[in-house]
Amino acid sequence: MKFTLQNWFSNKEQKFLFSAVGIFALYGLTNFVSKYRIQRQYDKLCERKRNELKRSIQEFRQSYNLSTGLSAELEKEILNFTIADVKQILFEKKATVKQVLLVFINRTLSVATSDNLNLITDINFVEALQEAEKQDQEISQDPQIIYKYDLFGIPVSVKDTYIHKGFDNTYGLASRLFKPATYDGIQVSLIKKARGIIFVRSNLPQLAMTFESINRIFGRSLNPWNKDRAVGGSSGGEAALQAARCSVIGIGSDIGGSIRIPAAFCGIYGIKPGIGRQTEVGEGIIEKAASGMINIRPSKGPLGRSVDDITVMLRVLFNSKNYSELPCSIQDPYWQPQDLDFTQNANKEKLKIGYIEQFNDLLPPNCMKRAVKEACQALISKGHEIVQINLEKELEHELAVAFPRLVAAEGGFKSFEDNLQGEKIIEEYELMERGTKIPIFLQTYILAPLLKLFGQKTLYVMSKQTHGLDVYQFLVNSGKQKRMNFQFLQYLKLNQIDAVIVPGFGCPAVKHGASKVLPLAALYTWIWNTVDVPAGSMPITRVQEGDDLKIQGKERTIDLVYIMMNQNMQNAQGLPVNVQVISYPNHEEMVLRVMKEIEGVVKFNEKHPYPY
Questions:
Q1: Whether the Cβ atoms of residue 534 and residue 260 lie closer than 8 Å to each other
Q2: CB count, 10 Å around CB of 290?
């Protein structure tokens, strides 16, 4: 019998069917048109912002004399100066504050704009020059003022997320454009209290939640060590500014590695303080659920080219006296800064340092393990005891998976969608987004068994962690997190370990786009956000030919994660390799001490001059 609608449906039913199909088609078309119109509006906003930044730079070039009046040799030296070095030449009258600032402004205009490395989102050159001229006048009256304030005369850069009067804090989102802050947040205010001169703001990823700095407003930032590699994220523009010597010191933020990953990719120094030593207040507030996570919270800290410099900036951010003098309207009523104090750990001459070469949920390339060994050897040469950390298998696994389990608990990228407000998500998030939207039944009983069947052990383990949870299960996992944190720190206590050395990341700087397929590499950093301990990142060496490029036991594998990691290691020679130093909560001073001792032996900056 020939199929026709008349044979199967009455006239009334046919009308109902056509009406239903028409309604669904109209809904789909309306939804498509609406999304298209929203994205087109956002595209226009992004283009307008880019054009305004270019115009601001062009007008500045035309309106100001950018000649420093210094010799080319001295300018080159200044680009590599520490904070102490800058203060010394100011005190010795070899340069003025304005001249030093112009050196870094010129450097930024030369290499950090959109036609080169693309590291900046806003410039504050005019206000910065006015402040520099004011400081030069103060020096003429009293040269000792240079040493009265921690950042007097120092050009400073800040991540785009920080609240800074007159500037957007976009988080790489078009919907946040042209909504400038009306006041300075805590961190910006503390920098200004220390007389730091904020002159530029740095790029980041859309939503500030991946380790490549790319968004639809400003585009992709490029790594000064190798333009084919990512700068890291989310404080990627900030780290690259330091590596490209466009700024003396800067600040970023970190919820899963966003200070330490860029530091590792760019071969610089950075530290994520523990939550107990700092406040969540001071960055722009993002919408709804994203700002409601209390298990894992964002940390704020410095990025620079030496341990001494990040120590100075951390002292500024922890300065209780300066904080008490800030307007009550911007203070955090739940927070009171605790000043840096090195007297407690200074009395202990010989330290006991643990080390972890790898986590078995993701094995790193040999270069990452070599860096850990070299850092340990440096500490041995200083007379310290080195011991290997041997965690129980279950505890090690829980440390590795707790972060994605908690962050993805909302299910379906809902908080991301809240903040995107209709803007198209960047490609780097697409696989994660799709993974979180797979129903838990399909993930548990179809996808996970298939991955296991086809030898995808790494994806199998992680696929079970990235789905939405009900409140009960979220609380169960929160309880696991508490017990896990306690067990890990208790292990360190029982073994009298002062600090631990671990790889800086799962691999060296990734190729552009690789964060889409290698999010698991961040387990080496997100672990320490979950445990909530201070964690510093510092450069040790660079990737060498041969064995450095291999992942032991994974040279030939059907595991897609390791296949992609091996592909990422192709042409990785010359990239910087960092380690992390972690210690107990509220022991930032111990982290800095260990980093300083390693730095004194390794001398990365002397052996491997910053590029570009």
A1: no
A2: 19
- Output the six-digit token pair for 230: 């990512």
Query: Does residue 258 surpass a pLDDT of 90?
Result: yes
Q: What is the mean pLDDT of residues 209-213?
A: 96
Beta bridge partners of 60: none
Measured CA to CA, the distance from residue 75 to residue 91 in angstroms comes to 17
CB 241 within 8 A of CB 213: no
- Could you tell me if 523 and 398 are in contact, meaning their C-beta atoms sit under 8 angstroms apart? no
The conformation of residue 426, written as its DSSP 8-state character, comes to P
* Burial call 167-197: b when 16+ CB within 10 Å, e when fewer: bbbbbbbbbbbeeebeebbbbbbbbbbbbbb
The predicted-structure confidence for 442-488, as pLDDT tens digits, reads as follows 888 899 999 999 999 999 888 888 888 899 999 999 999 999 999 99
Q: How far is Cα 77 from Cα 56, in angstroms, rounded to an integer?
A: 28
The DSSP symbol for 283 reads: B
Q: Is this model's pTM higher than 0.90 or not? A: yes
Q: Are strands 214-215 and 535-542 parallel, antiparallel or unpaired?
A: unpaired
Q: What is the pLDDT of residue 2?
A: 57
Report how far residue 316's alpha carbon sits from residue 25's, in angstroms, rounded to the nearest whole number.
59
Q: Round to whole Å and give the CA distance between 463 and 477.
A: 16
Give the span between the Cα atoms of 44 and 484, in whole angstroms.
48
CB count, 10 Å around CB of 367?
25
What is the reported pLDDT for 18? 67
List alpha helices for 194-306, DSSP H: 236-243, 260-266
Helices (H) and strands (E) in the chain, counts: 25, 13
User: What CA–CA distance (Å, rounded) separates 252 from 162?
Assistant: 8
d(CA 237, CA 303): 11
Element (H, E) at 300: strand 299-304
Q: How far is CA 187 from CA 152, 259, 302, 450, in A?
A: 16, 15, 11, 48
* Among the listed residues 322, 151, 337, 156, the one whose alpha carbon sits nearest the alpha carbon of residue 251: 156
- Computed over every residue of the chain, the mean pLDDT equals 94
Distance separating the N- and C-terminal Cα atoms of the chain: 76
- Angle, CA 533 vertex, CA 529 and CA 538 arms, to 5°: 85
Q: Determine contact, residues 510/438, Cβ cutoff 8 Å.
A: no
Distance CA 249, CA 316 (A): 12
CA dist., res. 217 & res. 355, Å (int): 41
Instruction: Give strand ranges (E) for 75-128.
Output: 120-123
In angstroms, the CA 598 to CA 280 distance is 30
